[in-house]
Design goal:
Elements: E1 8-12, H1 16-28, E2 33-37, H2 41-49, E3 55-56, H3 60-64, E4 69-72, H4 76-86, E5 95-98, H5 103-113, E6 119-124, E7 135-140, H6 146-158, E8 162-165, H7 168-194, H8 199-202, H9 208-213, H10 221-229, H11 232-254, H12 258-276, H13 286-289, H14 293-302, H15 304-312
Parallel strand pairs: 1-2, 1-4, 2-3, 4-5, 5-6, 7-8
Antiparallel strand pairs: 6-7
Helix pairs in contact: 4-5, 7-11, 14-15
Protein backbone atom coordinates (compact mmCIF):
# COMPACT_ATOMS: atom_id res chain seq x y z
CA UNK A 1 0.00 0.00 0.00
CA UNK A 2 1.26 3.48 -0.87
CA UNK A 3 1.42 6.62 1.21
CA UNK A 4 -1.08 8.64 -0.87
CA UNK A 5 -4.12 6.37 -1.07
CA UNK A 6 -7.41 8.29 -1.50
CA UNK A 7 -5.54 11.55 -2.11
CA UNK A 8 -6.03 14.27 -4.72
CA UNK A 9 -2.79 15.57 -6.22
CA UNK A 10 -2.10 18.13 -8.94
CA UNK A 11 1.04 18.15 -11.07
CA UNK A 12 1.88 21.38 -12.89
CA UNK A 13 4.50 20.76 -15.55
CA UNK A 14 4.31 17.48 -17.46
CA UNK A 15 7.77 17.20 -18.89
CA UNK A 16 9.94 14.16 -18.23
CA UNK A 17 10.13 14.80 -14.46
CA UNK A 18 6.43 15.53 -13.98
CA UNK A 19 5.42 12.44 -15.95
CA UNK A 20 7.81 10.22 -13.99
CA UNK A 21 6.55 11.53 -10.65
CA UNK A 22 2.94 10.94 -11.67
CA UNK A 23 3.68 7.42 -12.89
CA UNK A 24 5.55 6.63 -9.67
CA UNK A 25 2.67 7.79 -7.47
CA UNK A 26 -0.06 6.05 -9.47
CA UNK A 27 1.92 2.81 -9.50
CA UNK A 28 2.18 2.75 -5.71
CA UNK A 29 -1.22 4.01 -4.54
CA UNK A 30 -4.88 3.01 -4.73
CA UNK A 31 -7.74 5.38 -5.53
CA UNK A 32 -5.29 8.20 -6.16
CA UNK A 33 -6.46 11.09 -8.32
CA UNK A 34 -3.80 13.10 -10.19
CA UNK A 35 -4.82 16.11 -12.24
CA UNK A 36 -2.14 17.36 -14.60
CA UNK A 37 -1.63 20.67 -16.36
CA UNK A 38 0.93 21.78 -18.91
CA UNK A 39 0.87 24.80 -21.19
CA UNK A 40 1.81 22.42 -24.01
CA UNK A 41 -1.35 20.39 -24.58
CA UNK A 42 0.51 17.54 -26.26
CA UNK A 43 2.41 16.97 -22.99
CA UNK A 44 -0.85 16.66 -21.07
CA UNK A 45 -2.14 14.13 -23.57
CA UNK A 46 1.13 12.18 -23.38
CA UNK A 47 0.92 12.10 -19.58
CA UNK A 48 -2.68 10.86 -19.71
CA UNK A 49 -1.92 8.21 -22.34
CA UNK A 50 1.09 6.96 -20.35
CA UNK A 51 -1.03 6.70 -17.19
CA UNK A 52 0.98 9.34 -15.33
CA UNK A 53 -2.13 11.41 -14.56
CA UNK A 54 -5.81 10.52 -14.27
CA UNK A 55 -7.23 13.80 -15.57
CA UNK A 56 -6.11 16.64 -17.83
CA UNK A 57 -6.74 20.24 -16.71
CA UNK A 58 -7.10 23.26 -19.00
CA UNK A 59 -6.08 25.95 -16.51
CA UNK A 60 -4.32 26.50 -13.19
CA UNK A 61 -7.70 27.04 -11.52
CA UNK A 62 -9.05 23.72 -12.81
CA UNK A 63 -5.85 21.95 -11.79
CA UNK A 64 -6.11 23.27 -8.22
CA UNK A 65 -9.75 22.34 -7.67
CA UNK A 66 -10.17 20.20 -4.51
CA UNK A 67 -6.48 19.23 -4.50
CA UNK A 68 -4.55 18.33 -1.34
CA UNK A 69 -1.07 18.62 -2.82
CA UNK A 70 0.49 20.53 -5.71
CA UNK A 71 3.68 19.26 -7.33
CA UNK A 72 5.55 21.88 -9.35
CA UNK A 73 7.79 20.38 -12.03
CA UNK A 74 8.51 23.51 -14.07
CA UNK A 75 11.50 25.79 -14.79
CA UNK A 76 12.23 28.16 -11.91
CA UNK A 77 11.14 31.32 -13.70
CA UNK A 78 7.75 29.74 -14.52
CA UNK A 79 7.06 29.36 -10.80
CA UNK A 80 6.65 33.12 -10.38
CA UNK A 81 3.93 33.22 -13.03
CA UNK A 82 2.20 30.23 -11.43
CA UNK A 83 2.19 31.83 -7.96
CA UNK A 84 0.76 35.04 -9.44
CA UNK A 85 -1.99 33.04 -11.12
CA UNK A 86 -3.00 30.95 -8.09
CA UNK A 87 -2.39 33.29 -5.14
CA UNK A 88 -6.04 34.40 -4.97
CA UNK A 89 -7.61 30.98 -5.57
CA UNK A 90 -5.40 28.49 -3.72
CA UNK A 91 -6.80 27.05 -0.50
CA UNK A 92 -4.72 27.75 2.60
CA UNK A 93 -4.53 24.02 3.41
CA UNK A 94 -3.11 23.06 -0.01
CA UNK A 95 0.54 22.04 0.26
CA UNK A 96 3.24 22.38 -2.39
CA UNK A 97 6.36 20.42 -3.36
CA UNK A 98 8.68 22.34 -5.66
CA UNK A 99 11.06 20.56 -8.05
CA UNK A 100 12.45 23.63 -9.82
CA UNK A 101 16.22 24.10 -10.09
CA UNK A 102 16.82 27.19 -7.96
CA UNK A 103 15.21 27.13 -4.55
CA UNK A 104 16.06 30.55 -3.08
CA UNK A 105 14.03 32.39 -5.71
CA UNK A 106 11.00 30.12 -5.23
CA UNK A 107 11.18 30.41 -1.44
CA UNK A 108 11.20 34.20 -1.71
CA UNK A 109 8.26 34.28 -4.15
CA UNK A 110 6.27 31.85 -2.00
CA UNK A 111 6.76 34.02 1.09
CA UNK A 112 5.65 37.06 -0.88
CA UNK A 113 2.61 35.67 -2.74
CA UNK A 114 1.36 32.54 -0.93
CA UNK A 115 2.57 33.05 2.68
CA UNK A 116 -0.14 30.84 4.19
CA UNK A 117 0.72 27.73 2.17
CA UNK A 118 3.36 25.24 3.25
CA UNK A 119 5.95 24.58 0.56
CA UNK A 120 9.17 22.59 0.42
CA UNK A 121 11.82 21.90 -2.21
CA UNK A 122 12.91 18.50 -3.50
CA UNK A 123 15.88 17.71 -5.74
CA UNK A 124 16.15 14.14 -7.11
CA UNK A 125 19.75 13.06 -7.63
CA UNK A 126 18.89 11.08 -10.76
CA UNK A 127 21.60 8.89 -12.29
CA UNK A 128 19.42 6.95 -14.73
CA UNK A 129 15.89 7.06 -16.12
CA UNK A 130 14.20 6.04 -12.87
CA UNK A 131 13.23 7.85 -9.68
CA UNK A 132 13.27 4.60 -7.69
CA UNK A 133 15.95 3.99 -5.07
CA UNK A 134 17.74 7.32 -5.47
CA UNK A 135 18.82 10.05 -3.06
CA UNK A 136 16.55 13.07 -2.69
CA UNK A 137 17.72 16.49 -1.57
CA UNK A 138 15.21 18.02 0.87
CA UNK A 139 15.38 21.81 1.01
CA UNK A 140 13.41 23.75 3.61
CA UNK A 141 11.84 27.08 2.58
CA UNK A 142 10.61 29.94 4.75
CA UNK A 143 7.13 28.39 4.49
CA UNK A 144 8.23 24.80 5.25
CA UNK A 145 6.47 23.40 8.31
CA UNK A 146 5.86 19.97 9.82
CA UNK A 147 2.94 18.96 7.57
CA UNK A 148 4.71 19.47 4.23
CA UNK A 149 7.90 17.93 5.63
CA UNK A 150 5.93 14.78 6.53
CA UNK A 151 4.33 14.70 3.05
CA UNK A 152 7.77 15.02 1.51
CA UNK A 153 9.00 12.04 3.54
CA UNK A 154 6.05 9.97 2.31
CA UNK A 155 6.87 10.72 -1.33
CA UNK A 156 10.48 9.67 -0.81
CA UNK A 157 9.25 6.52 0.95
CA UNK A 158 7.02 5.67 -2.03
CA UNK A 159 10.08 6.06 -4.26
CA UNK A 160 12.09 3.74 -1.98
CA UNK A 161 14.61 6.55 -1.73
CA UNK A 162 16.70 8.30 0.90
CA UNK A 163 16.23 11.93 1.93
CA UNK A 164 19.16 14.27 2.55
CA UNK A 165 18.61 17.65 4.20
CA UNK A 166 20.42 20.33 2.19
CA UNK A 167 20.90 24.01 3.02
CA UNK A 168 19.13 26.18 0.46
CA UNK A 169 22.27 28.16 -0.41
CA UNK A 170 24.37 25.01 -0.78
CA UNK A 171 21.70 23.55 -3.04
CA UNK A 172 21.67 26.54 -5.39
CA UNK A 173 25.46 26.59 -5.50
CA UNK A 174 25.49 22.89 -6.39
CA UNK A 175 22.87 23.34 -9.12
CA UNK A 176 24.83 26.26 -10.53
CA UNK A 177 27.82 23.95 -10.91
CA UNK A 178 26.14 20.79 -12.24
CA UNK A 179 23.36 22.31 -14.36
CA UNK A 180 24.25 25.84 -15.48
CA UNK A 181 28.04 25.56 -15.82
CA UNK A 182 28.04 22.54 -18.18
CA UNK A 183 25.59 24.39 -20.43
CA UNK A 184 27.67 27.58 -20.40
CA UNK A 185 30.98 25.81 -21.04
CA UNK A 186 29.63 23.62 -23.83
CA UNK A 187 27.93 26.63 -25.42
CA UNK A 188 31.20 28.56 -25.38
CA UNK A 189 32.99 25.59 -26.94
CA UNK A 190 30.49 25.57 -29.79
CA UNK A 191 30.80 29.34 -30.18
CA UNK A 192 34.60 29.11 -30.35
CA UNK A 193 34.31 26.36 -32.93
CA UNK A 194 31.84 28.24 -35.10
CA UNK A 195 34.00 31.36 -35.04
CA UNK A 196 37.02 29.42 -36.23
CA UNK A 197 37.91 29.98 -39.88
CA UNK A 198 38.43 26.24 -40.34
CA UNK A 199 35.09 25.20 -38.82
CA UNK A 200 33.21 25.31 -42.13
CA UNK A 201 35.59 22.68 -43.46
CA UNK A 202 35.83 20.33 -40.47
CA UNK A 203 32.47 20.53 -38.67
CA UNK A 204 31.21 17.42 -40.48
CA UNK A 205 33.96 15.37 -38.89
CA UNK A 206 33.73 16.25 -35.19
CA UNK A 207 34.17 13.16 -33.03
CA UNK A 208 32.31 11.64 -30.09
CA UNK A 209 34.36 13.59 -27.55
CA UNK A 210 33.21 16.90 -29.00
CA UNK A 211 29.65 15.65 -29.24
CA UNK A 212 29.70 14.39 -25.65
CA UNK A 213 31.20 17.56 -24.20
CA UNK A 214 28.79 19.81 -26.08
CA UNK A 215 25.69 17.73 -25.22
CA UNK A 216 24.56 20.07 -22.36
CA UNK A 217 23.85 22.67 -25.07
CA UNK A 218 21.02 20.36 -26.24
CA UNK A 219 18.95 21.23 -23.14
CA UNK A 220 15.70 23.13 -23.69
CA UNK A 221 16.71 26.83 -23.97
CA UNK A 222 13.86 27.88 -21.67
CA UNK A 223 15.13 25.62 -18.89
CA UNK A 224 18.73 26.76 -19.38
CA UNK A 225 17.80 30.46 -19.36
CA UNK A 226 15.62 29.97 -16.29
CA UNK A 227 18.38 28.11 -14.45
CA UNK A 228 20.89 30.87 -15.20
CA UNK A 229 18.73 33.97 -14.74
CA UNK A 230 17.43 32.95 -11.29
CA UNK A 231 20.82 31.96 -9.86
CA UNK A 232 23.11 34.77 -11.05
CA UNK A 233 25.28 35.17 -7.97
CA UNK A 234 26.15 31.48 -7.54
CA UNK A 235 26.94 31.00 -11.22
CA UNK A 236 29.03 34.17 -11.26
CA UNK A 237 31.20 32.76 -8.47
CA UNK A 238 31.70 29.47 -10.33
CA UNK A 239 32.68 31.38 -13.48
CA UNK A 240 35.29 33.36 -11.54
CA UNK A 241 36.77 30.15 -10.13
CA UNK A 242 36.80 28.56 -13.57
CA UNK A 243 38.54 31.56 -15.12
CA UNK A 244 41.15 31.45 -12.35
CA UNK A 245 41.91 27.80 -13.10
CA UNK A 246 42.12 28.49 -16.84
CA UNK A 247 44.53 31.35 -16.25
CA UNK A 248 46.79 29.07 -14.19
CA UNK A 249 46.76 26.50 -16.97
CA UNK A 250 47.48 29.23 -19.52
CA UNK A 251 50.59 30.24 -17.55
CA UNK A 252 51.83 26.64 -17.49
CA UNK A 253 51.41 26.36 -21.25
CA UNK A 254 53.02 29.71 -22.03
CA UNK A 255 56.05 28.89 -19.87
CA UNK A 256 56.18 25.30 -21.19
CA UNK A 257 55.91 23.99 -17.61
CA UNK A 258 55.60 20.31 -18.44
CA UNK A 259 55.66 19.17 -14.81
CA UNK A 260 52.68 21.39 -13.90
CA UNK A 261 50.74 20.26 -16.97
CA UNK A 262 51.45 16.62 -16.09
CA UNK A 263 50.27 17.21 -12.51
CA UNK A 264 47.13 18.86 -13.87
CA UNK A 265 46.34 15.88 -16.12
CA UNK A 266 47.01 13.34 -13.36
CA UNK A 267 44.89 15.24 -10.84
CA UNK A 268 41.99 15.52 -13.30
CA UNK A 269 42.09 11.77 -14.00
CA UNK A 270 42.18 10.92 -10.28
CA UNK A 271 39.42 13.40 -9.39
CA UNK A 272 37.14 11.96 -12.07
CA UNK A 273 37.83 8.42 -10.86
CA UNK A 274 36.93 9.44 -7.31
CA UNK A 275 33.60 10.77 -8.53
CA UNK A 276 32.85 7.61 -10.53
CA UNK A 277 33.65 5.40 -7.52
CA UNK A 278 31.94 7.57 -4.87
CA UNK A 279 35.23 8.20 -3.06
CA UNK A 280 35.41 11.21 -0.76
CA UNK A 281 38.23 13.40 -2.19
CA UNK A 282 38.95 14.70 1.33
CA UNK A 283 39.98 11.27 2.59
CA UNK A 284 43.66 11.25 3.49
CA UNK A 285 44.05 7.74 2.13
CA UNK A 286 41.98 8.23 -1.02
CA UNK A 287 45.04 7.89 -3.24
CA UNK A 288 45.48 4.32 -1.98
CA UNK A 289 41.90 3.49 -2.97
CA UNK A 290 42.12 4.75 -6.54
CA UNK A 291 43.21 2.04 -8.98
CA UNK A 292 45.78 2.79 -11.62
CA UNK A 293 44.87 2.73 -15.30
CA UNK A 294 46.58 -0.68 -15.54
CA UNK A 295 44.52 -2.01 -12.63
CA UNK A 296 41.33 -0.76 -14.27
CA UNK A 297 41.98 -2.76 -17.43
CA UNK A 298 43.15 -5.87 -15.59
CA UNK A 299 40.16 -5.85 -13.25
CA UNK A 300 37.86 -6.34 -16.24
CA UNK A 301 39.31 -9.83 -16.63
CA UNK A 302 40.37 -11.05 -13.18
CA UNK A 303 38.57 -8.84 -10.63
CA UNK A 304 39.63 -5.73 -8.75
CA UNK A 305 41.39 -7.38 -5.79
CA UNK A 306 43.48 -9.64 -7.97
CA UNK A 307 44.26 -6.74 -10.28
CA UNK A 308 45.56 -4.75 -7.34
CA UNK A 309 47.77 -7.65 -6.28
CA UNK A 310 49.28 -8.21 -9.71
CA UNK A 311 49.97 -4.54 -10.44
CA UNK A 312 51.28 -3.55 -7.01
CA UNK A 313 53.48 -6.59 -6.58
CA UNK A 314 55.90 -5.42 -9.24
CA UNK A 315 57.63 -2.17 -10.03
CA UNK A 316 56.15 -0.13 -12.86
CA UNK A 317 58.46 2.01 -14.95
CA UNK A 318 57.39 5.64 -15.03
CA UNK A 319 58.65 8.66 -16.90
CA UNK A 320 59.83 11.87 -15.26
CA UNK A 321 56.25 13.16 -15.07
CA UNK A 322 54.92 10.11 -13.22
CA UNK A 323 53.12 8.55 -16.18
CA UNK A 324 53.46 4.82 -16.76
CA UNK A 325 55.81 4.07 -19.64
CA UNK A 326 53.97 2.50 -22.56
CA UNK A 327 57.02 1.64 -24.71
Amino acid sequence: MGSFNNTKISIIGLGNLGINIGHLLLSNNNNLSITGFDLVKDQSKLAKDSKSITKEANSYAECLKDTNLIILAVPTSSTYEIFESIKDIISYDTHIIDFSSNKRAVSSWATEMIPNNEIIGLYPFVKSDTLLGINWGVINYSNSKSKIIDICKLLIKDAKGFGINIDINEHDSYVGLVEAMPFLLSSLLIKLSHNSSSWKEVFRYFDDNFNSFSSPADIDPIKSFSSISTNNDMISQWIKLYISELMNLEKYLESNSEKEVADFVNAAWEDKLMIKNNIDPNMSSSSDIIPSAQENMLSLFIGSKAAGFFTKSKNIDKDKYGFEKRI
